[in-house]
């Protein structure tokens, strides 16, 4: 039986859709466009370049870069030739980047010009396995301490035009690694094989996941390609022959709205914060978003007013799901129309209650008590969400300690997420185990408070943390930022909550200008808990 290999999807795209476009926005270069056929030609040359620089089969190529066509070429050339692709999270601190580089034993490090200073810091701090550096740009290399440094375009121009991507690659061998954000300790590496990546890409063609994709789709790749969700998205589009759009450096709301309008983007996947920025930018500068057919959100709750604005455009709205790097992003998916049924208000209620929808094909999801028994399917009893399946990793990358600690004897992954389950097989995310607040002997889910506060018209962002209290042990504290033109009134917010929740659960509400976030854009609750631990001491 033929192995499942990513190269078959990439080669097929070049053969079946040779004229389909890939568009990239690069710093200093403006709009760059080429075809699938031209992409595949450069991909083969890139594979020769990586071989020449010392990254053979089974060895690691790291990329410190934004979503550009050069990054895309390195990504798929590495995987197709049987090496290991590692997208480095440039938002991690230097020590974490040193750890991930050395654990993965990066042999070739490809770097965007803008990120050269960061690469220099990482090498100076102890990243010691790199044999060669590759500059991904179109301009002469600036002065740098990195050596030996090679120019990607120069190397590409002298590389052979054809590459025989191997057929004898073990489909179960690691060809890609994504590291977690590292907010609870060192980042954990999630290894993916050819088989894993191909099955995930095929699964995502389903309407129950990210699909169905169409040949006339235009897919904008917003999440950075170091993110577990993002480096697989281009392959989703390649299967259908969709046009791919890469946003380049620092994509903000205005840049994304302009790309949607200019390129006729039909599929947009982002976090809710960026969704708000895109809508605001479109209104401010009259960008046309009417080409959108599918909008998918993840990472946080989707505010009702934002959901309503996208729904008014006639889009299919994916309003959430439960996902993590260990399952290459999603393993459940929630869609507005499925949550609504005959009652549109029911969809918003279930969205705000954290409903994550149904497990997608290949995912086994359970919610269990501490003794491993399933919780009642009543939407009330809470337990830990655990995962298993052919698109959930079975171990962490070169990390026996975390593998032993976080996988059960039966192979279930302990996510550390608290949830409930329902009779219709859907689940809802209640919060992280470490984010539950125990106050006066009672548990308060931070997410429940965040959902309710996000419905107030003055609130832009809200993060609820537990802080020490001399009487109750812990009390909830809500950090709240205001929408433009609005002012946060803590008393009004508490009154708003009183209409939804019992009084003993109500938090103090503290207006702030900004809320600290992690490297992947989530609230950095560990940092915030430390920052505000003395809140009740005064």
UniProtKB/TrEMBL annotation:
One GO term (biological process): fatty acid metabolic process
AMP-binding enzyme C-terminal domain residues: 449-522
Domain AMP-dependent synthetase/ligase: 11-397
Gene Ontology molecular function: any one: ligase activity
InterPro entries: AMP-bd_C, AMP-bd_C_sf, AMP-binding_CS, AMP-dep_synth/lig_dom, ANL_N_sf
Pfam families: AMP-binding, AMP-binding_C
Ranges in a coiled coil: none
Record keywords, A-Z: Fatty acid metabolism, Ligase, Lipid metabolism
Similarity field: Belongs to the ATP-dependent AMP-binding enzyme family.
Protein name as catalogued: AMP-dependent synthetase
Organism (species): Immundisolibacter cernigliae
């Amino acid at each position: 039986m033929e192995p499942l290999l990513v190269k078959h999807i990439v080669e097929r795209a070049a053969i079946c859709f040779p004229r389909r476009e890939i568009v990239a926005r690069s710093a200093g270069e403006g709009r760059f466009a080429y075809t699938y056929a031209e992409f595949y030609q450069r991909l083969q040359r890139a594979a020769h370049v990586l071989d020449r620089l010392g990254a053979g089969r089974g060895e690691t190529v790291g990329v410190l870069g934004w979503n550009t066509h050069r990054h895309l070429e390195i990504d798929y050339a590495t995987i197709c030739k049987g090496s290991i692709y590692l997208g480095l999270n440039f938002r991690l601190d230097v020590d974490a980047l040193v750890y991930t580089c050395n654990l993965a034993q990066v042999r070739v490090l490809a770097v965007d010009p803008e990120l050269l200073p960061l690469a220099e810091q990482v090498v100076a701090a102890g990243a010691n396995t790199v044999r060669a550096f590759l500059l991904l740009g179109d301009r002469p290399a600036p002065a740098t301490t990195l050596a030996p440094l090679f120019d990607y375009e120069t190397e590409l121009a002298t590389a052979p035009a054809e590459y025989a991507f191997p057929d004898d690659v073990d489909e179960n061998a690691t060809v890609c690694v994504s590291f977690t954000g590292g907010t609870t300790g060192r980042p954990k590496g999630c290894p993916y094989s050819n088989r894993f990546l191909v099955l995930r890409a095929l699964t995502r063609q389903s309407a129950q996941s990210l699909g169905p994709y169409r040949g006339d789709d235009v897919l904008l790749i917003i999440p950075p390609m170091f993110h577990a969700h993002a480096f697989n998205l281009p392959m989703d589009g390649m299967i259908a022959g969709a046009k791919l759009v890469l946003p380049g450096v620092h994509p903000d709301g205005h840049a994304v709205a302009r790309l949607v309008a200019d390129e006729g983007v039909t599929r947009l996947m982002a976090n809710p914060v960026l969704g708000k920025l895109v809508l605001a930018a479109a209104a401010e500068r009259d960008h046309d978003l009417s080409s959108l057919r599918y909008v998918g959100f993840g990472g946080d709750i989707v505010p009702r007013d934002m959901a309503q604005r996208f729904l008014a455009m006639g889009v299919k709205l994916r309003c959430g799901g439960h996902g993590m790097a260990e399952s290459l992003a999603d393993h459940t998916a929630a869609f507005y129309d499925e949550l609504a049924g005959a009652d549109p208000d029911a969809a918003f209620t279930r969205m705000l209650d954290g409903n994550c929808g149904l497990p997608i094909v290949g995912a086994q999801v359970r919610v269990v008590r501490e003794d491993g028994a399933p919780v009642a399917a009543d939407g009330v009893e809470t337990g830990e969400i655990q995962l298993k399946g052919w698109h959930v990793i079975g171990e962490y990358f070169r990390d026996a300690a975390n593998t032993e600690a976080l996988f059960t004897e039966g192979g279930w992954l302990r996510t550390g997420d608290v949830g409930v389950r329902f009779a219709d097989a859907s689940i809802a995310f209640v919060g992280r185990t470490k984010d539950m607040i125990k106050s006066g002997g009672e548990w308060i889910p931070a997410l429940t408070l965040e959902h309710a506060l996000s419905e107030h018209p003055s609130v832009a962002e809200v993060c609820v943390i537990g802080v020490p209290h001399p009487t109750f042990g812990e009390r909830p504290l809500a950090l709240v930022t205001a929408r433009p033109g609005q002012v946060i009134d803590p008393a009004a917010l508490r009154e708003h909550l009183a209409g939804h929740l019992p009084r003993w659960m109500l938090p103090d509400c503290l207006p702030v200008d900004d809320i600290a976030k992690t490297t992947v854009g989530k609230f950095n609750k560990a940092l915030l808990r430390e920052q505000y631990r003395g809140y009740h001491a005064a």
